Amino acid sequence: MHIGFIGLGHMGGPMAANLLKAGHQLSVFDLSAAAVEALVGAGATACDSVAALATARPELVISMLPAAPHVKSLYLGDAGLLSLLQQPTHLLDCSTIDPHSAREVSAAARQAGHYMLDAPVSGGTAGATAGTLTFMVGGSAEEFEFARPVLAAMGKNIVHCGDSGNGQVAKVANNMLLGISMIGVAEAMALGTSLGIDAKVLAGIINTSSGRCWSSEVNNPYPDVLENVPASRGYTGGFGTDLMLKDLGLATEAARLAKQPVILGAAAQQLYQAFSLQGHGQLDFSAIIKLYTKQE
Amino acid sequence: MHIGFIGLGHMGGPMAANLLKAGHQLSVFDLSAAAVEALVGAGATACDSVAALATARPELVISMLPAAPHVKSLYLGDAGLLSLLQQPTHLLDCSTIDPHSAREVSAAARQAGHYMLDAPVSGGTAGATAGTLTFMVGGSAEEFEFARPVLAAMGKNIVHCGDSGNGQVAKVANNMLLGISMIGVAEAMALGTSLGIDAKVLAGIINTSSGRCWSSEVNNPYPDVLENVPASRGYTGGFGTDLMLKDLGLATEAARLAKQPVILGAAAQQLYQAFSLQGHGQLDFSAIIKLYTKQE
Amino acid sequence: MHIGFIGLGHMGGPMAANLLKAGHQLSVFDLSAAAVEALVGAGATACDSVAALATARPELVISMLPAAPHVKSLYLGDAGLLSLLQQPTHLLDCSTIDPHSAREVSAAARQAGHYMLDAPVSGGTAGATAGTLTFMVGGSAEEFEFARPVLAAMGKNIVHCGDSGNGQVAKVANNMLLGISMIGVAEAMALGTSLGIDAKVLAGIINTSSGRCWSSEVNNPYPDVLENVPASRGYTGGFGTDLMLKDLGLATEAARLAKQPVILGAAAQQLYQAFSLQGHGQLDFSAIIKLYTKQE
Amino acid sequence: MHIGFIGLGHMGGPMAANLLKAGHQLSVFDLSAAAVEALVGAGATACDSVAALATARPELVISMLPAAPHVKSLYLGDAGLLSLLQQPTHLLDCSTIDPHSAREVSAAARQAGHYMLDAPVSGGTAGATAGTLTFMVGGSAEEFEFARPVLAAMGKNIVHCGDSGNGQVAKVANNMLLGISMIGVAEAMALGTSLGIDAKVLAGIINTSSGRCWSSEVNNPYPDVLENVPASRGYTGGFGTDLMLKDLGLATEAARLAKQPVILGAAAQQLYQAFSLQGHGQLDFSAIIKLYTKQE
After folding, report:
1. Is residue C79 predicted with pLDDT exceeding 90?
2. Nearest-Cα residue of chain D relative to residue C253
3. Does B96 contact chain A (CB < 8 Å)?
4. Do the bridges between strand D25-29 and strand C121-122 make them parallel or antiparallel, or are there none, so unpaired?
């Protein structure tokens, strides 16, 4: 399939490369010439503007951008993609943005005669490179079926979440819970060890009991409970605190617009913010346990 | 083995019955004559006082009582079990109490020449009846090995958590995390559904993603996401909100004494308290989701 | 002075009326014909569009609108006030909006050759009618001095808070603190009375001690501690919970953009949101004490 | 009046000295010989035990001790003051303890034929020395009238709070509110200044507006907003974070026993605990603002 790909950063770059590997034809655009060059080296065709990409008439356009303003700017407005595309086109935005904005863009796309899916991912840069991302997809069943084989070249878990915006809803709800449960594990581990139990023994009990969760089993924040996790290498790698902060900001803002209380979700956001303020925003979010342990 | 059993309530009664089934000889005591009668009918010998039970010279005494004051009253003091027992005896307290009190009682027991384990359980009355409880055990390795076969008649997961009090530490740490993660799931489900996603779809995504936890997979608080859980039968059965409140009280009080912050743990305690205040203390703790959804 | 006034609602209407009483000449605009009629009856000149008002060439334009989107829509854009006004004009926005948006509009106004102040108010509709509002004003000293006499016709406490946006900053910071301290008073009164102390005795002690604050002294949330406050008349009148929610939303959103934690501020927002969800959004915000007392 | 005084520490010492200055006859006891010596130098008579003090037959016994266990140990038990005093005596405990314990001791005192008041203080060591303490007093009207003239020699604000324990109730409720509002002020000042407003300007607006409170007007946590406050001298002096923690522990524990939610009160406790964990427990509690500002 001829696919246009816009946004070739840490996530978009390896995602696009996997599409090339799967045999798709790619027209690519990014503000960074270096990012474009890398993909061209792998077989993509460079476009020097969004307009040029639209003119190439791809069947499907995929975007992977940092935040809602970039997405709105790309699709909407006078020189936006929606007005540039001359024929009905399938659009697939993989950016993580708020559900409200995702629905605004999708509605505008349909109004302009296009098809559109929101499809935020989880799995990080490792998953993007390995082609093992999870895609949470919002849009109609027909749109979803059209895009599914393409998504399968970039991920292994492709979930249809319902209508437009629901991909974003699934992601913010899941990540808000993740942000809360990580702090819960951090508090439980800090409390238990301060009361004298061995960290591995405690983690073992939690992991076979009603406290078990991804944050205890897969990314335990206590150092050296698990191997090959951020906590056992100084909290490097992983999912940065500032990225968790971005997602919690999306969740609490979506909650505000929906008039929906999220008491622990908002508390978690503020605790990560307090932690980031002290200069730890680049550490894996499991480093939040440092708030609960005496620092030298 | 000749075992003394003190405290034959909703938990202690079926636990004692399982010991009888396993072939042990039981001397039992409870303030409720009816509770004693039930066990006598199953083969136990009734004692009409703690002193009488002590005089029967059991090799092991098991206690299952509501709270720390009952445990202290049973073991310590002038007419307490520690002074009544005339020979070194193995003692096993299965009550859920604060680690500080557990350690105080254990230390007194050792001082008096006895052996003592703290061994709080999880699994509820269903697990007590089925003999599938989890025991979290604090005490020496020798004490643990002595008691292990007896515990195996009442439970299927017998974990040595380290020295005295660590059984209680494991339980309060795990249950604090449970209390937090249940609220986290409640908020995520309430947020997601208020933003338009189907509850089962959202739960399915969470359960295969980084938000997954016991509270989403096994006891999801959203009605009709899972069958045979409290949320799908009006929040009856299960683990009552007021029992969760008791455990969160133990956790935050232990944290206070250890000068250990537990920010979300304390928030969770207060939210369950606010929910209980409105008359919902007997509902399964997953009913906390009602705080987040419009009530008629 | 010839003043243009846009937005004649519950606040803007009486504010404009006070300007007429002070002898100013008013050109007014509102989407509601009835609101315009009321002011015309008091001596104002009606404009049937923003463009018509701009054509009337007022020396000063005052706007009083519900939220940031309305303010941006009025001032910015192709048919916005900034492009309609043909000569340098003093602009004064009394709407309560986020500081970021206020600064964006002010910067655009200056770029277009105008002068602009942000001047949100406190004091409610009673203060608007009585001409006793507090104005928190952001902008240059010269702009402030120009507008001060006009503001003095509508309020009695006119404070220069520094550069553009600082009026909004002062308001969101003050109101966030107000939202927190009201809940603090509610918790202290609920705790004290549940422990047996008389509510008036407790309020008396707090008001002469280190807990004293506006929420205890002037708007105590416990019924019948003070006369003539919402708590003593079923929480009617006063400052609605949903208005407090709006201001806390502005505060936490401004905090998020500034990467500034506001832990209790965010908690307060969520608690008012939970209270509003149960149908109490129209009650004075002191009604939050109902979260802490058993409801029939 | 012949008064027995037990507990001559940082608070009790200067309080006893003020009683001597007012012409009362004092029999004193403390575990610290140096503390006793200091009072003897000022005219008191030393007792080498509580029993000796009881034998001296004072009309009134005042105690000022660190915590509930000390108070219970002094009054209750086999060798406690209640059994040592041979004639009905007025008892006045100025220690800050939980209301539950205060009521337990008062009930025991009455049962033994004595009169008893709980009378915790506020005002710190400066107030103790200057004789300007506030006393919050629980007990009967007759008991209160008997003690009032004596209290007047040590304080200037003597408030009868109702029956036994209500002095403690008033203190924990007020101090919980104080702990919350200080964090509220810290967040408001940190938010405002991070958004660009001058700290003194913001404090000025808050202090004439609905956010005003003791923590903003008298002990503002932002450096150099006020002179002669801890914030303007490195947070030395004042009311230590660990003392605030003690009072918040009393408040949340009393709330737990009363099944009363205190959501922000518990959050405040945890935040001070997190701050203390990082080594700041000796700083004035207004130093909590450091949680909200970037530390070098």
Report:
1. no
2. D191
3. no
4. unpaired
Domain ranges of chain D: 2-163, 169-292
Which CATH superfamily is D169-292 part of? N-(1-d-carboxylethyl)-l-norvaline Dehydrogenase; domain 2 (1.10.1040.10)
The CATH T-level fold of domain D2-163 is Rossmann fold (3.40.50)
Q: HEC profile for A245-281? A: HHHHHHHHHHHHHCCCCCHHHHHHHHHHHHHHHHHHC
User: Both tokens of residue D30?
Assistant: 């403390």
Inspect the interface and report whether the beta carbons of D279 and A293 lie closer than 8 Å: no
Residues A135-190 pLDDT 10s: 999 999 999 999 999 999 999 999 999 999 999 999 999 999 999 999 999 999 99
What would the two tokens of residue C183 be? 């809940």
Could you list the beta-strand ranges (E) of B150-217: 155-160
The packing angle between helices D166-194 and D263-275, to 10°, is: 70
DSSP track, A138-199 = BS-HHHHHHHHHHHHTTEEEEEE-SSTTHHHHHHHHHHHHHHHHHHHHHHHHHHHHHTT--H
Enumerate the β-bridge partners of residue A284.
A240
Question: Could you confirm whether domain B168-292 is CATH 1.10.1040.10?
Answer: yes
Total residue count of chain A as it appears in this document: 296
- Contact present, B162 and A196 (Cβ < 8 Å): yes
Contact C294 B274 (CB under 8 A): no
Q: Is residue A88 scored above 90 in pLDDT?
A: yes
CA dist., res. B99 & res. D138, Å (int): 34
**Residue B124 tokens, joined:** 């509820």
Mutate: best of B264, B270, B277, B280, partner C, most C CBs <10 A:
B277
Closest by CA to C191, choosing from B270, D207, A32, D203, is B270
DSSP run (H or E) holding D186:
helix D166-194
Cα–Cα distance for residue pair A94/A117, rounded to 1 Å? 9
- Do A169 and A160 contact (CB within 8 A), yes or no? no
Pairing of strands B60-63, B90-93: parallel
Predicted complex ipTM: 0.95
Prediction pTM value: 0.96
User: In a 10 Å sphere around its CB, with 0-12 CB exposed, 13-18 middle and 19+ buried, how is residue A86 labelled?
Assistant: exposed
The edge-to-edge listing of strands for the beta sheet with C115-118 is: C45-46, C25-29, C2-6, C60-63, C90-93, C115-118
Residues paired with residue B45 on neighbouring β-strands, in sequence order: B27
Range 150-189 of C in CB contact (< 8 A) with D:
157, 159, 161-163, 165-166, 169-170, 172-178, 180-181, 183-185, 187-189
- Output the CA torsion sign for B174, B179, B185, B191: negative
Retrieve residue A210's tokens: 């009603």
Label residues C90-118 b or e (16+ Cβ within 10 Å = b). bbbbbbbbbbbbbbbbbebbbebebbbbb
Write b or e for each residue in C192-219: b if 16 or more Cβ atoms lie within 10 A of its Cβ, otherwise e.
bbbbbbebebbbbbbbebbbbbbbbbeb
Token pair 């405990």: residue? D93
* Termini Cα distance of chain C: 56
Burial class (CB in 10 A: 0-12, 13-18, 19+), A113: exposed
Residue A118's identity, in one-letter code, is D
d(C-alpha B250, C-alpha B99), whole Å: 8
Chain A, chain B: beta-carbon pairs less than 8 Å apart: 252
Q: How does residue C124 score in pLDDT terms, banded at 50, 70 and 90? A: confident
Within 8 A by CB and 6+ apart from A127, the residues are A121, A133, A134, A155
D152 Cβ neighbours under 8 A, 6+ residues apart: D158
The two tokens of residue D129 are: 């020395």
Is the pLDDT at C292 greater than 90? The verdict is yes
Q: What is the pLDDT of residue B79?
A: 86
